[in-house]
What we know:
This protein is mostly helical. It has helices at residues 10-29, 37-50, 52-55, 62-79, 92-109, 114-138, 152-175, 181-201, 204-224, 227-247, 249-269, 275-292, 299-312, 329-356, 372-392, 402-418.
Amino acid sequence: MHPSHHILNLTEAAHLRLNSLAAFLVPALALWLPSGYAWGTALLFTGALLGAPYWWRRPVALETRWLAAAILLMALVWLHGSDWSKGTSVLNKPVRYLLVLPCLLYLMRFPPSLRFILAGVAVGAACGGLRALYEVFILGLDRPWTTAEKTSGAIQLGNLCGLFGLICWLQLMVYGARWGWLQRLAMLACCGLGLLGSLLSQTRGGWLALALCLPLLFWLIWRWLSRRRALLGAAVLGALLVPLGWHMAPQLEQRLDWAIHEVTSYESTGNANTSVGQRLDHWKLAWSMGQDRPLLGWGDAGYVTEKARRVAAGQASSVILEFGHAHNEVLDMFVKRGALGVAGLGALYLVPLALFWPRRRGAAPSQAGLTPDDSICIHLTGVTLVVAHMGFGLTQVFFAHYNGVMTYLALVILLFAAQHPVQGAPGTVSDERR
Length: 434
């Protein structure tokens, strides 16, 4: 039966509300609770198990099959090349991809409300920025989301904080003309806090990734919304970033000066004992090793052994032995899992990008049950999500961390399912206008 003619019973309505709650919790808790992403994803998986009779035997649309295939391929890629001497712990990453598949099919049967996803992102950006402010200015940490033993949290969560802030800016551009001043100011504050959290994290790779998104977003807003909104968006973003950048000018200038000095130092003396230097040394060695086994790669165990051998032979600095990855998503896949790994990673990026990319010329695209603004917001947010993660992967193996891969996968399937709302469901335009 066509969704528009489907009459929801109480159980189905409960599943829709549960998924909307999960859609809110995934981004809302991601930046300020330990493993915050897990609360929403666990709720979603629980719902998928309870709701299995509703989705198990339903036909699966072609686009959904493509997305499921990309996720499944990446699960197989993680199995390939795993260090099986570590026992069942090697299943941690592939199993997480596999657990997403029933959640995807469940969401296609009971799609979440878009407004819950967007509200969760706004809350997540605000909470991330406030946590960063607290940890830097109250606790006195040099960077938020860090401990004496671990600094990767500043990279992972600082990147997500900036991404959430950018998505808040997109919401303001899409819906701002229909909002009141209070709602606009609230979203502007969430945007500012998200971007501030990214700046305080001092993650230069995250700044690069967000900068790569902006030209594409301005062009898409110009084409699908209006020139006026694109120009207004540039003005709003400038009004936020200029004072933030001015206030943090000494730290930002220092970080950029360090980056330039570290690049020149590596090029002139081969000094890899710096943040940028060790990345350049990692990339050089990973490319060289990958060329020797281009199809299947060295595997996790082989990578460690061969890297140590080449370091001992003087082909790279010993500093890179402290890290288990190549600090670049594509190169890390290439050296450990070869062309197969690169193909899996490419599918994980490009299939969602193709599904979210606006295709029709003329009026903004829309799906049944969505307003044109809702539809274009999903498209722009989905494109931003994918392109930003491609940028994050330039200087960090983002998907090697659970918060990175699970937040990405959860938001991809939530946004994808939100494109197909059930008419008459709570939060859809049939009973409630945005």
